[in-house]
Amino acid sequence: MKSTTDHQASAAIPASRAGGWRAVMFLVVVLAYLAATGYVAQSDLGLQNLVLVAAVFGILAISLDLVAGMLGLYSLGQGGFFGIGAYMTTILANDYGWNVFGLLVFVLVATGLVGVAVGAMSLRVSGLYFAITTFIFTLVLTVLATDMVDVTGGLQGWLGPAFPDFPGGLQWLGTPLVWCTMAGLFLSLTLVWNVRHSPFYPILLSIRDAEPFAEAAGVRTAAIKIGVFGVSAAMAGGAGWLFSFLGVVSPGQFDWSVSLNVLVMVLIGGINTTIGPVIGAMFVSMFPNVVNINPWLQEIVYGALSILAITLLPNGVVGIAKRVLAPLVGSLDPKTDIVAVDVATAAATLPAPSALATGSEIIVECRGIEFGYGLGPKVLRNVDLAVQRGHIHGLIGPNGSGKSTLANVISGRLTPHAGQVLVKGTRADGMPASSRSKLGLRRTFQAAQLVKELTLTQNVMVGLFDRVPRIVSRAALWPMLASGRRDLAAMHRRSAETLALVGAGEWTSRQVGDVPHGIEQLTQLASVCVAGPDVIVLDEPATGLSAKEVRHLATILANLKTQGVTMIIIEHQTRFLFPLCDRVTVLNAGEVILTGSADEVRADPVVRQVYLGE
Ligand SMILES: Nc1ncnc2c1ncn2[C@@H]1O[C@H](COP(=O)(O)OP(=O)(O)OP(=O)(O)O)[C@@H](O)[C@H]1O
């Protein structure tokens, strides 16, 4: 098998003209940013304060967008992390004389660790419950900050520390806090932009929208959620560190309304967009200064504008801008059909498994599997299954007989109550789904688990997660690393090639939300084939496909078999399944009633009675 690393090594990006233009654009943006920062740093205090507050809230909004936009974790705890950063800086600098830059490191680490602890809750609660839990976290911190008067100064708070001046020779640069804050904003934007342009981005979105898909591709979703939440909390703590230099630090500046306001900023600017949260932060923080009217009228106008923006612009200001600019960028030529596959080519070029079929080696084995949901009756009873390497093994049975449950037990979504699962001779029943992909076991789902807002290619790239080294650790710098650009190009190419080989090559840059069901199914298949698996478990792959699409799917699966890929296929459409199968196992009411060739199964009177209804 040609390994992914070989693939990457042969995929160095040529120094393209597009890359050169991108570098020039980046340089222009950086110079403009530096010029704007220099201008503000030498302006009057009024403008400086306006920009500083907007920039600090910009960082805070980016920190929320990182978890809400990319992971779907709507945190109302950002105000709490912000407050912890500001209080730590104020108290440790004023009372204990800590160096403020040393404090920055301390604050980032401390708030990051608190974030890891809070993020761990996301494994137990999600959606609204996660938002409420983080809201309570902020509420409790505000109460503590109000009541622990000796430490926090109570409702009055403390005056924050002074920010150090530039050394003598650099004083012409103006106010150092402006430079430092704008550097913080730039770093936060760069971090998010880099992640968005790395293969970690589709992985984050797959955790958000299709967690079982991510796990089946080898992604340790729990660790990633907790880690990213820690980074987000550290960013909010860093914003708090900056905020402490702006004046008084008191509970009112970090209460629950701040967390809600930050969410409003993200929604107005555009959730899951790099620049959107900063635009929202500018709008919200500058509004009272720009619209200088009676305070109560100002609140009403602000509230009305926010409601209008959130309801009328579901993707925020950035969403509108993208829609306006889309015609200028040009639209894709939509195709509406699968593409016939050249069987010989596909067989020769689909990523191959680690070994071709040898003898009668059993590659997946279930021994005495017992399983039931909660306190309900057993759904699987003493199930034995032996799948030979290189075979297509069908799994049939009436509705509710336990086929999908068995697929989930084999692939690791469910842990059996008794019995063993062995993959290539290794005990796998105690392993999480993400570890089984390392054994070469992949799966597809009955209802396609994909990320609708990503392209087909990006979805397929998720399947390469454990085939490319250090995707997570390189994500923050990805586009800046030569290895990152090379690996991304290789992943992109290999994903597009695999899509082409399953017959969806004309759709690679379309979003999953815009393609028909048949193409979704092929994308699922490509996302597992791209990794060159040894075994694929397919749960009702022909459901919802037209007759032509079913024939096409049968061709692809037959091709995979000639490559040596073992498949366990759950399917009701026996006319599609039986010609493909080497062996078929029939389940009824959670028990195996027969395993044999398709002809034996077809001829068995019990099977004809319970399943074929004869
Ligand atoms: N999450 C769940 N919680 C409780 N019971 C479940 C759950 N999932 C499935 N079941 C029950 O377990 C039994 C087996 O379901 P399963 O989906 O494995 O059957 P199946 O053979 O795949 O059915 P189908 O062909 O309709 O997909 C059914 O009685 C079903 O109602």
From TrEMBL:
Q: Tell me the compartments it is located in.
A: Cell membrane
Its transmembrane ranges are 20-41, 50-76, 96-121, 128-149, 169-193, 226-250, 262-288, 300-321
Known PANTHER family for this protein?
A: ABC TRANSPORTER ATP-BINDING PROTEIN, CONSERVED COMPONENT OF ABC TRANSPORTER FOR NATURAL AMINO ACIDS-RELATED
Q: How does it sit in the membrane?
A: Multi-pass membrane protein
Q: Name one GO molecular function term.
A: ATP binding
- Signal peptide interval: none
Q: State the organism named in the record.
A: Mesorhizobium qingshengii
Q: Where is the ABC transporter domain?
A: 364-614
What this protein is called in its record is ATP-binding cassette domain-containing protein
InterPro entries recorded = AAA+_ATPase (IPR003593), ABC_AA/LPS_Transport (IPR051120), ABC_transp_permease (IPR001851), ABC_transporter-like_ATP-bd (IPR003439), BCA_ABC_TP_C (IPR032823), LivM-like (IPR043428), P-loop_NTPase (IPR027417)
Which UniProt keywords are given for this protein, alphabetically ordered? ATP-binding, Cell membrane, Membrane, Nucleotide-binding, Transmembrane, Transmembrane helix, Transport
Pfam families in alphabetical order: ABC_tran (PF00005), BCA_ABC_TP_C (PF12399), BPD_transp_2 (PF02653)
Is the keyword Transport in the record?
A: yes
Q: Does the keyword Transferase apply?
A: no
